[in-house]
Design brief:
The complex is a heterotrimer of chains A (340), B (478) and C (254). Helix content of chain B is 75%, strand content 2%. With 478 residues, chain B is an all-alpha fold. Chain B has a two-stranded antiparallel ribbon with strand order 3-4. In chain B, α4 packs across α11 and α9 packs across α19. Classes of the chains: A alpha+beta (340), B mainly alpha (478), C alpha/beta (254). Chains in contact: A-B, A-C, B-C. Bound molecules: guanosine-5'-triphosphate and magnesium ion (MG). The site of magnesium ion has 4 residues of chain C, from α1.
């Protein structure tokens, strides 16, 4: 027993570790691949077809079978089988070339949309996932939430009407609110409005908008407008967008008497021995974290200054309402201030 | 309770739907406006009733201390020095009372009890079971655990009362952020230094579920009171013996600190690993209130922390040690064929133990000690005596008089222990499954079998891997 | 509003000593339930220990207490069960870490709520105080850490404060047992209805919210005519609090 070669032992160990890694590494490990492929994909395909039809019918577009096959990234045979099955179950009706949703098909589609948007809302309010990741995660989750799950989630979130992109969330009876607003590209100079919707399609433009740090709920003011570019100010920063991007952002115009704060800065740039006044919290902070900041005293008008620096630079402690409260930089950068 | 009429139920439904409508009319500024409104009220009230007598406050001392404690140069060295100082006091201070207690309980009381049992004609099995099993295990736990805990806990409580812990969390938060965890995990890890179960309950202060789960799973990497004495003892016997006596204290202290710091390193690594894989997600918010320093009430703190924490924890150790002592005695005296159950277990685990640089005795001890880590060392000693057949004992499964640390070392060396065994035992004591109380607490707090399982098994697997690697490298070298 | 004058012999050890008996963990057959609420790290557990003679863990960092603890004391032959709660910044949030405290304050139906605040950080502490006062009619403000406030040269006019808040205010330094006898006496008087509070209601609520609150709370009062805090329930409904919706259906808060 005591005569063995450590090198052999190490070699066996590393071989086993590599094997384990190949099996269980996230997403692409063999274990996951095998497990996922054994799960029936039909439900997902059916639901994706329903959703596709629903969104297109909303835009008054009608699809034929070929369109569906082309748009969805599944193999042709699976899609055809599913379409047949769906028509057997009267979720869709096929008239000539056109595929249409039946009443029960459209109810089903609404349920998926509801689950999707609720999950996005959940990700936004309760988790720290990046905004760009929400959609993809919700695409996966929407197939897993049952109707009861969705209802529970909805009441847990306080029955929200809109998802974090500003899209309406269908109620459990299938009612859907309307977005009222005007695209930024059509607003006259000087208008003050609140962003109510950002289109998440096409994805390239959506990601660009996100990269600019533009968020639902922010108040903006149009500063300049030409045929090539639109400039507006929001939360203390200037944004310059091409009209095609601006067209995907919808705002609701605010009444005349709102004050629009200029010269805003972020709490993160405050230096030692400077004092400032809090103007508000960026709309990028939502849900529980926003409430917590408010409860800690980061409310409009509060005086703030730096209390402590950190040996590693982050977080910093801020003196607010007589107490020292440490915040990380990514949060402090979303608190709007005006330096004294 | 209320019995609703149908009318009422309808009205309530109406109220709820009305509230939903109103919520959307008010819009998403609701919470902001409300919070501002409440603070506005608060400001008005305070303006009427609070007056500052003279402008220069006494916040100054606090600010000065804070400047040093969180400074770029001193922040981290100070943290390290404080940890070292606390451990040094614990190790050095515990030596003498420990020797005294074991002299009393093991050398004087034990033979007296044996004599008494013989005098009243107690049957051999009852005598063995009660006095050699239960009593010896309890006595050992008291002798070895009481002194270090009676020093460690009060010191720690003094730091806690002073207000140092939140500063540690503040200083370390950046590292936690890099590993995808929450800075308040530093606080829960500190609580874990006392008891992991308490540390796990303390994770409730972490308000996001993902980060809280990470904190729960990794809490085991902070050495709890049941494991400090093991570390201290083994370090003193084996590591301290490497150098001349005058330096041995320093070296064993360094070894113990190294293990504690290694625990933190593993905690960061595992947190990072979890947050990159199964617990993927961005770090959500972090906010931490830094309270003013409050000079602790020295004697009162010392008194209450000895009475409450030390004695309560000790009591728990005894409660678990007694049945464990009994179990050890039983497995050493129940025979399967011609070998006792214990010998049989040890034999079958010896090969695997050797591969890990440990031995069968240690692995069996860790199985017996699942209820409480405190009893690992006494179990190891009893079982070692059993397999080596050293005749100092008074029968199978009996712990014998260990009047000094060096005697303990002699037994262990007789059992084939080397420096490698000692180091790997220290590592394994850091990296193994949590005790049963902690496992139960994890289940209560997560309400998930899956995560309880992960939190229980992950550290043992890591323990196997680490000790295995250390053993192989060690053997390649020598 | 009645404000108790500062007792002349508050430092005297005999003060009310005959009426008080600390009962430790013996919480059977109590007459009244008293809750200890407040921001984190304001000394709730220290007050708890001073009143019950127990040794709840205290520590100078927010979040030391995370589970509720119970103890008891007897005063003038009445038994009071005291509940020490984890600290909260607010009752308006839905965050999990504050759930224990929130639920007890809202649904535990304490006879008296002792709100422990840090005297030198009164303004930020009032955030929670004002919220609690929306819920309950029987509360006392325990102005703790007075020794620190004095060291910071703060002068607090407890009379004005009591008048503004509409509840009794008792200055204490729980760590040194100062003010605890007065606190116990006030709690007893509140429980027995000898002091009647007229709690402050939040005034600076924006108009649109106020209107919505009035509308909702009128409707709630139709179903539950006797509840004192319909406005708070309305507030929580507007927030979409699931717990409140449930209890509205069952009527558990009545
Ligand atoms: N100087 C002074 N310190 C006090 C007083 N009361 C409490 N403390 C200290 O304040 C700190 C916090 O006290 P705790 O009783 O743990 O506070 P808590 O409100 O229970 O805190 P959480 O459980 O975290 O919400 C401890 O260090 C106490 O010793 C007081 O009246 N004066
Ligand atoms: Mg407490």
């Amino acid at each position: 027993m005591n005569t063995y070669n450590p090198i052999t032992a190490l070699a066996v160990f590393f071989a086993l570790s590599i094997l384990a890694f190949l099996f269980f590494r996230p997403y692409r490990g063999w274990f996951w691949l095998i497990r996922n492929s054994s799960v029936s994909n039909d439900k997902i395909v059916v639901e994706d077809v329903l959703k596709l039809l629903y969104h297109n019918e909303n835009a008054d577009k009608h699809l034929n079978i070929n369109d569906i096959i082309r748009t969805l990234k599944y193999n042709d045979r699976t899609i055809l089988e599913c379409i047949n099955k769906m028509s057997d179950h009267e979720l869709i009706s096929i008239q000539g070339d056109n595929v249409k949703l039946t009443q029960s098909g459209s109810d089903y589609a609404l349920r998926i949309v509801r689950a999707h948007r609720l999950w996005e809302k959940f990700l936004a309010e309760k988790t720290g996932f990046k905004e760009a990741e929400w959609h993809e995660r919700a695409e996966r989750m929407e197939h897993e939430l049952s109707k009861v799950d969705a209802d529970n989630l909805s009441s847990q979130l306080g029955n929200p009407q809109f998802d974090p992109h500003g899209d309406p969330i269908p109620t459990n009876t299938g009612k859907i609110a309307k977005i009222k607003g005007i695209p930024v590209s059509e607003l006259p100079i000087g208008t003050i409005g609140r962003i109510v919707h950002i289109k998440d399609k096409p994805e390239i433009i959506y990601k660009q908008i996100l990269a600019e740090n533009i968020h639902i709920g922010s108040v903006i003011r149009i500063m300049e407008k030409t045929s090539a570019r639109i400039e507006f100010h929001s939360e203390g920063e200037a944004f310059v967008l091409a009209p095609i991007m601006a067209g995907n952002i919808t705002v609701s115009v605010l009444e005349k008497d709102v004050v629009f704060e200029e010269n805003l800065a972020r709490l993160s740039i405050l230096k030692e021995n400077e004092t400032a006044k809090i103007i508000g919290i960026s709309k990028e902070i939502r849900g529980d974290s926003r409430r917590r900041l408010l409860d800690l005293g980061f409310v409009k008008g509060a005086e703030v200054q730096i209390d402590l620096m950190n040996p590693l630079g982050d977080p910093k402690a801020f003196l607010i309402k007589g107490t020292s409260i440490a915040l990380r930089k990514n949060q402090a950068s979303k608190i709007l201030i005006q330096k004294d | 309770m209320f019995n609703h009429t149908l009318m009422d139920t309808k009205k309530i439904d109406h109220i709820i739907s009305l509230s939903n409508d109103l919520r959307w009319q008010i819009g998403d500024e609701f919470h902001d406006n409300l919070a501002e409104g409440i603070y506005a009220d608060a400001a008005e009230i305070v303006k009427d009733s609070v007056h500052k007598k003279d402008e220069k406050g006494t916040f100054r001392i606090d600010a000065k201390i804070d400047k040093i404690i969180t400074s770029r140069i001193w922040g981290f060295p100070l943290m390290f020095l404080i940890l070292a100082f606390v451990l040094w006091l614990t190790i050095v201070g515990a030596n003498y009372p420990s020797a005294m207690l074991s002299g009393l309980l093991l050398d004087t009381v034990h033979p007296a009890l044996k004599g008494f049992a013989a005098a009243i004609g107690m049957p051999w099995w009852l005598d063995g079971f009660l006095i050699d099993g239960v009593y010896l295990a309890v006595a050992w736990v008291i002798a070895v655990m009481l002194p270090p805990m009676a020093i460690f806990f009060p010191l720690f409580t003094l730091l806690e009362d002073f207000g140092y812990l939140p500063r540690v969390a503040f200083n370390l938060d950046h590292l936690f952020k890099l590993s995808g965890a929450h800075g308040k995990q530093a606080l829960t890890m500190s609580m874990g230094f006392g008891c992991n179960a308490a540390g796990i309950v303390a994770t409730r202060i972490i308000d996001s579920p993902r980060e809280r789960l990470i904190a729960i799973i990794t809490n085991n990497f902070s050495l709890c009171n049941g494991r400090w004495p093991t570390q201290i003892l083994i370090a003193t016997i084996f590591v301290g013996a490497l150098v001349p006596a005058s330096y041995s204290g320093v070296l064993s202290l360094a070894a113990v600190i190294a293990i504690a710091v290694l625990g933190m390193v593993f905690m960061f690594l595992v947190s990072w690993g979890l947050s990159k894989t199964v617990l993927k997600g961005e770090v959500s918010t972090f906010n931490l209130e830094l309270p003013p320093y409050r000079p602790p009430r020295f004697w009162k703190t010392i008194y209450t922390s000895i009475i409450d924490r030390t004695l309560i924890v000790l009591w728990r150790a005894i409660v678990f040690a007694a049945p464990a002592g009994a179990v050890i005695w039983l497995i050493s005296n129940i025979y399967l064929g011609d070998a006792s159950l214990a010998a049989w277990l040890i034999d079958s685990l010896d090969g695997f133990g050797f591969l890990l640089g440990l031995n069968g005795v240690i692995l069996v001890a860790y199985i017996v000690a699942i209820p409480a880590n405190e009893i690992v060392i006494p179990t190891i000693l009893m079982l070692t005596v059993l397999v080596t057949g050293i005749s100092a004992g008074e029968g199978a499964g009996v712990m014998f008089e260990l009047d000094s640390v060096s005697a303990t070392g002699d037994i262990l060396r007789a059992g084939g222990w080397t420096l490698l065994t000692a180091i790997n035992l220290m590592l394994f004591s850091l990296l193994h499954n949590p005790c049963s109380t902690t496992i139960y607490t994890i289940y209560k707090e997560t309400k998930s079998l899956k995560w309880t399982l992960v939190a229980s098994i992950l550290p043992v697997i890591m323990g196997f891997v680490v000790t295995f690697l250390v053993a192989q490298i060690w053997r390649l070298w020598s | 509003m009645e404000v108790k004058p500062k007792s002349a012999c508050e430092t005297c050890a005999q003060f009310n000593a005959d009426g008080l008996k600390k009962l430790g963990v013996n919480t059977t057959d109590f007459d009244y339930v008293v809750a200890l609420a407040g921001n984190p790290n304001t000394g709730k557990s220290t007050v708890f220990n001073a009143m019950t003679g127990l040794r709840q863990h205290t520590g100078n960092w927010p979040g030391k207490t995370v589970t509720r603890a119970e103890g008891a004391f007897e005063y003038n032959r009445q038994k009071f069960k005291l509940v020490d709660l984890p600290g909260t910044y607010s009752l308006l949030s839905t965050s999990e870490d504050e759930e224990v405290a929130r639920n007890f304050i809202l649904f535990g139906k304490p006879s008296v709520t002792v709100i422990v605040v840090d005297a030198s950080r009164l303004e930020r502490n009032l955030n929670l105080v004002l919220q609690i006062l929306e819920i309950t009619n029987n509360a006392v403000l325990c102005l703790n850490l007075m020794d620190e406030a004095e060291r910071n040269n703060l002068e607090i006019d407890t009379r004005t404060l009591a008048r503004d808040l509409g509840i009794p205010v008792v200055p204490t330094s729980a760590r040194y047992n100062r003010g605890i006898p007065e606190l116990i006496q006030t709690v007893s008087e509140l429980a027995n209805g000898k002091i009647v509070c007229k709690p402050h209601r939040i005034k600076n609520i924006p108009k649109n919210i106020e209107q919505a609150l009035e509308k909702l709370s009128a409707e709630i009062k139709q179903v539950y005519p006797d509840i004192p805090n319909s406005r708070w329930i309305a507030l929580r409904l507007l927030e979409g609090d699931k717990n409140i919706i449930e209890t509205l259906k069952t009527g558990e808060f009545v």
